[in-house]
Amino acid sequence: xxxxxxxxxxxxxxxxPGRSGISAKFPVGVLLWLALLFAVALGLWLxxxxxxxxxxxxxxxxxLIRGLSILALLSSGLLFVRxxxxxxxxxxxxxxxxxxxxxxxxxxxxxxxxxxGQQVGGRVSAELLPGQPVTTIGGSVTLIQGRGGHFIAxxxxxxxxxxxxxxxxxxxxxxxxxxxxxxxxxxxxLRYTQIFHTANGIGYGAPYRLxxxxxxxxxxxxxxxxxxxxxxxxxxxxxxxxxxxxxxxxRGQKLILRP
Length: 259
Prior knowledge:
By secondary structure, the chain is an alpha+beta fold. The protein has two domains: 22-108, no CATH class; 125-258, Cathepsin D, subunit A, domain 1 (Beta Barrel), CATH 2.40.70. 37% of the residues lie in helices and 25% in strands. The protein is built from seven helices and eleven strands. The radius of gyration is 34 Å and the shape is rod-shaped. The protein starts with 21 loop residues before the first helix and ends with a strand. The relative contact order is 0.10.
């Protein structure tokens, strides 16, 4: 007899995948999803052991629930899996477990990560633009030495940005006429009653009190300064400001100001 089936012969029923063994009793996708949940739970337990107290706060718990909800939503596609590839399964579990761990760590340490990002950005900005104050986690302000060997600091004076040269040989703070105009002062109305003896001869200054002067996050109110009558290349930040700090030091090409 011919082995070829006739047109009226019923074809044999193909063996449907996922209908034998453990998959017939329990879908493979559900097993994968449960394995993923177990791996995430194990990872959370290990993280809690390594970093005790990080998830005890209300914000930490809310962020944890939010992260787990996102993970559950993204991984819900595993529930519809009918065939299993062991290598692919292990790879996917590793990927999802790693993603969950990274997500939880990012949420838990978001404040620290933000501080580090700000510091890195500030350091890069300071290297490219000397004079940009860099605030560290400890609260200090660091200035990078400029090309001429001087420390330049871009400060805030009554809301305006003014460049200063740090001058430990100057007793006070001296604003240039350009800086005075930047904060809204009319040099013609000032009284230049102060007399200074400098290497270039006698100079004249007008006393004035600033509402606020800050370098980075270090700032003081009601600051006495002198407005120089002659033009200057930059304003000077002298010892009357530095002495109000707890300390300052020069370390290599860095000037560190501590509030």
